Amino acid sequence: MKPVLLIEFLRSRGAGELTKIDTQSYPWELLIRQSRRANLISRVALFLREAGILDDIPTQPRQHYVNALCIAKANARAINWEVRDLYQILRGQNIDFILLKGSAYIWSENSAARGRLFSDVDIMVRKPSLEDAERVLVHSGWMGSTLNSYDQRYYRQWMHEIPPLQHLKRQTTLDLHHSIIPPVSYPDFPAEKLWQLAIPAEDMPGLFVLSHIDMVLHSATHLFHEGEFDQGLRDLSDLDLMIREYILDSVLWEELLARAVELGLELPLYYALNYTQKILDTPVPEQILQKAAQQRSRSHLPDRLLDSLFLVAFVPDHETCRVRGRRVARFLLFIRSHWIKMPWYLLFPHLIRKGWLRLQGENSH
To answer: Is the Cβ–Cβ distance between 57 and 31 less than 8 Å?
Structure first.
């Protein structure tokens, strides 16, 4: 992979070397442009402040980072408000829920919350509570998408979430999950085991976040199953930060590997460890990476081919980071994600339909 300034910056931060930056000659404008495209500018700004060098940056680029910090702070404040509002709605019906992804990072105030920007809230309820949760949310101003019958069936029968809900006034998007894996790809996924280790929120009975290890596994599963890499480097950075905080600092490597086996998530864990190490220099011990490789189920594609696809797909989508074959790589990974999600007898008609609708200028899920 060709050198990319943003990736080199993230590596330097991980190695504790940001203080070595020559703040007067560093290409700040280029870093701003790349990090903004990757939705990482607020995280970069926070890293600069934590390293104690933000005030040493020339005025014009520094102002971009100061603004980015303000945006991140406002984003976190808004998400926490949304979580409390959801809690009031669902707690009134005695419906427990788990925060997922970015909202969980913000609520937990963990390392992945640093400068994390996102626009929607993800929560998970138990499958038997799904209909009740949707009903009470709709009555409280969260309206479902106006999808056709096929797309409704796509979500409700095949996926691990219902169609996105959007608040009528605030326009916030809510993704309501009942699992973290589509049931058509993993019908026996033990979602209840996530609840068994979930961490309850203090003074808010019924509100949970995933255990630290499960949070890492879910982040890995989401990144390497979804096939969306426009913000892939941001999500890989989330993994790097959580591995350093939860696993590396606590020496929980063996527990992480064992939990992946218990949940059947050995393959996404291997990818997470492999690509955080290769791209962001995450200090994954070699023996742990080898064990993760040995215990995973084999992929349908050779490792060398997957390397050539993932290493290109994670490069920021910016004109200064042009790499040959990125569009092709992301398209193939998008197809791979559908192959993982759906059995062939559902996948082929689904892709044919999506392709036809695209030719007609229509959108479909």
So the answer is: no
Q: At what angle do helices 212-226 and 266-280 cross, to 10 degrees?
A: 80
Of 46, 51, 6, residue with least CA distance to 26: 6
Kindly give the confidence (pLDDT) of every residue in the chain, 365 residues in length, as a single tens digit, with 9 standing for 90 and above.
Answer: 568 999 999 999 999 999 999 999 999 999 999 999 999 999 999 999 999 999 999 999 999 999 999 999 999 999 999 999 999 999 999 999 999 999 999 999 999 999 998 879 999 999 999 999 999 999 999 998 766 777 787 788 888 999 999 999 998 999 999 999 998 888 889 999 999 999 999 999 999 999 999 999 999 999 998 878 888 999 999 999 999 999 987 779 999 999 999 999 999 999 999 999 999 999 999 999 999 999 987 666 677 888 889 999 999 888 888 778 788 888 888 888 877 877 766 777 767 766 666 666 665 55
**pTM attached to this predicted model:** 0.91
> Phi and psi dihedrals of 5, rounded to 5?
-55, -45
Domain boundaries, the chain: 5-359
Tell me how far apart the alpha carbons of residues 204 and 211 are, in angstroms, rounded to a whole number.
17
Side chain identity, residue 121: V
- 164 is written with which tokens? 């996105």
Do residues 172 and 86 touch, judged by C-beta distance below 8 A? no
State how far Cα 22 lies from the chain centre: 32
Instruction: Render the burial of 248-279: b for 16+ CB within 10 Å, e for the rest.
Output: eeeebbeebbebbeebebbbbbbbbbbbbbbb
